[in-house]
Design goal:
This protein is an alpha+beta fold. It has 8 helices and 4 strands; from the N terminus they run ββααββαααααα. α7 runs antiparallel to α8. The N terminus is likely disordered.
Length: 254
């Protein structure tokens, strides 16, 4: 597959015949540059230009070679972040990086444009890599959902008991040991949900389960009512006080 070349609006100026001064000279590179998959390559043609910032001969004995080196490095830095399956985006990004003048040691500046193509073999390798990566991602997502479901079962005392009996019907005596080890296991976080509300609901369920006697409920409601009064939440304080009255000895709910 061949990508249309990046078109220059003006031809690059040419270095003066004596090779000195601040004129410009063209360089051309034909490179195999790695994509974001190191073993898959872009085929790149780089049309570059270099010039000396000094009036005398550049310090480097082969300024064109130095210019090619820096153009090659700049192109590789950009193309290494792209897939050969997205050549237009890769070419645009490479041209955006190379068209501006960049200064280098030895008193040189360089700029260039990039034209990309991709061989059928490299495209096939990239497509195979993408298929494998998608398969791995699907496996990871399936495993994450399986573990989240198991966590939800084990965090719920009732579901945990049913799960254990169904899975190990001949080992009911080992359930208390499992329950002790799972003490404090939270429910899995729901994507996009309110984690704070979920945690509070889970905590409240566990708290209510722990209040087995009327005396425990009475102590809890007294503390809750006093706390709400201190915080200034009078409507909630009234509700907590009413619950406390309903649970006092002699009430219908005591």
């Amino acid at each position: 597959m061949s990508i249309l070349p990046w078109r220059r609006t003006t031809a690059p100026p040419v270095l003066p015949k004596d090779g000195t001064g601040t004129g410009q000279a063209p360089v051309v590179l034909h490179e195999q540059i790695p994509s974001h998959i190191p073993s898959v390559f872009f085929t790149a043609r780089i049309d570059g230009t270099w010039c000396s910032k000094k009036t005398e001969t550049p310090d480097h004995s082969h300024p064109a070679a130095l210019a090619r080196h820096h153009l090659r490095e700049r192109a590789a830095d950009v193309l290494g972040r792209y897939s050969v399956l997205h050549p237009d985006a890769a070419q645009d990004a490479a041209n955006a990086a190379l068209t501006s003048w960049a200064s280098h040691p030895a008193g040189l500046e360089s700029s260039g444009t990039v034209q990309l193509s991709i061989s059928p073999g490299d495209r096939d390798l990239a497509e195979e890599h993408l298929r494998r990566q998608r398969a791995i991602d699907l496996d990871h997502e399936d495993e994450r959902r399986r573990l989240a479901h198991l966590q939800q079962v084990l965090a719920d005392p009732d579901l945990r008991k049913v799960w254990w009996i169904a899975k190990f019907p001949d080992r009911p005596n080992e359930l208390p040991s499992l329950t002790a080890q799972l003490d404090g296991l939270p429910l899995p976080h729901q994507a996009g949900g309110d984690d704070i509300r979920s945690d509070i609901r889970h905590f409240t369920d566990r708290l209510v389960d722990a209040l087995h006697t009327p005396q425990q409920r009475e102590i809890f409601l007294k503390v809750l009512a006093q706390t709400l009064h201190t915080l200034g939440h009078h409507d909630l304080h009234t509700t907590a006080t009413r619950w406390q009255t309903l649970n006092e000895p002699g009430s219908a709910l005591a």
